[in-house]
Known about the structure:
Layout: E1 3-10, E2 17-19, H1 22-30, E3 38-39, E4 69-70, E5 80-86, E6 90-91, E7 97-109, E8 111-120, E9 136-137, E10 161-171, E11 177-187, E12 199-209
Keywords: Membrane, Transmembrane, Transmembrane helix
Transmembrane segments: 162-182
Amino acid sequence: xxxxxxxxxxSSTANVVSAADKATAAALALAGAAPNVVxxxxxxxxxxxxxxxxxxxxxxxxxxxPQAVWTQPTFIPGETHGFAAVSITVPLTIGIINDFLIxxxxxxDNAVTARIQAVSTLGISLFPVPGLDVDLNAGSLNPVTxxxxxxxxxxxxxxxxxxxxxxxxxxxxxxxxxxxxFSFQVTNYxxxxxxNTAGLAFSADIYQATPI
Length: 212
């Protein structure tokens, strides 16, 4: 079956919702809550940045590069926040297996977990898709279990994480659509000397297989 591009979802002040944790942020984003983050840019001027190639020749080329976002422009040591953004609604085809491919790239300063969920337009019930709806962990600093200080070089903020997965939603027998929810929990450094910045940037490409 041919693969068609659906959307490139990149972090920005226009689509990211923040909350106390990623589950709450995901629920708010699904409910249509207004974005409430700020663009902190490359606050310390040393972060890696997620950027498309200058000659990107895909239909996603018009999508903006990800912004590094946070809940406020000033940073608090050890603070933890959840963030989420929701894809466009994709109508599913009745009577066939609906297959997708998702590619996610994430940068965070500092500790981060990520989760991808497939949510039907009939409610918040999740499709049972293998590989989705699980926490993706990045390094030894886990914002769920708590952190102290990132003391090992290379530091966690020097790494960009990526994850790609085929997502099969199976045979569909009723008129329904799906939205993909990308949620994150990010914790800032507890202490890092004079530099104590926080931010999250991500890009998610969504493709769908279509019947011939």
